[in-house]
Amino acid sequence: MSQSQQSIICPRCHAETFDNSWKCWRCEKTFPYSLRVRSRPRPDGDVAQRSGCLAVFWKIAKAVFAFFLIVVAIGMLSNALQTPEERVEHDRKVSQAAATNEASRNKTEAEKLKKEQEKSSKKAEYESKKNAMVLHFQTREKTAKDAIWTSDHFFKVGVVDDGSVRDGYAKYVCQVLHDNGFKGETVWVQIIDIVKLTRSGDWEKLGEARCL
Q1: Is 29 within 8 Å of 11 (Cβ atoms)?
Q2: Which H/E stretch holds residue 43?
Q3: Any idea where the domains of the chain sit in the sequence?
Q4: 105-129: per-residue pLDDT in tens?
Q5: CA distances, 149 to each of 106, 113, 126 (Å)
Q6: By the 8 A CB rule, do 67 and 74 touch?
Q7: Alpha carbon distance 110, 115 (integer Å)
Q8: What is the DSSP letter of 140?
Q9: pLDDT at 1 over 60
Q10: Domain 125-211 is in which class?
């Protein structure tokens, strides 16, 4: 006989029952309650442990639910005990807090929009200055044959190669940029052989300067 199963001896016919039934399998007599209790199988260790864990979990769940009900009841009781003036004052404070939060959100959105507009305006202004410099070196500088911005901080000017180093001319370009609003923008100027670029597509550098 296993430890998890016990038998019942029928008081009437003395038949032995092993299936934890409340009735005798032979004479169908209902067993007394005392016999049924003694015959209940003892749970093994794993079953007992799981049962204990479930019991603890159920107790915790009931405690949490009871606490929630108490909090709700206290809130309802507090509202019920408030005088009309207190309820009006409470509603006013709630409305005021909501209005303050809404005003704060609106202010934040307005500041964000303002920053985006300022950023967009500065970018447009910078692009306008860049285009003005390209036009200046394309039309008003005899040495320069063409000019292009390859990035926001990289300006290239094409000249005809006369065999000399053009670092000095690159510094002159920096001075022109400084005089036209680019001071402090950290622009890198390169002087390019325009003839070689036109014929072969190679960007041969003849001189350069960093405009701070």
Answers
A1: yes
A2: none
A3: 1-42, 125-211
A4: 888 899 999 999 999 999 999 999 9
A5: 40, 29, 12
A6: no
A7: 9
A8: T
A9: no
A10: alpha beta
Cβ proximity of 199 and 207 under 8 Å: no
Strand partners of residue 205? 192
**Top-confidence residue, 162 or 80:** 162
User: 153, 193 in Cβ contact below 8 A?
Assistant: no
Mean residue pLDDT of the chain comes to 84
Residue with tokens 């260790």: 45
Find where tokens 């404070």 sit.
93
Element (H, E) at 55: helix 45-81
3-state helix, strand, coil in the chain (%, to 5): 60, 15, 25
Element (H, E) at 189: strand 187-193
Contact in structure between 166 and 122 (CB atoms under 8 Å):
no
Q: At what angle do helices 84-139 and 167-177 cross, to 10 degrees?
A: 140
CA distance 146 to 101: 56
pLDDT exceeds 50 at position 177: yes
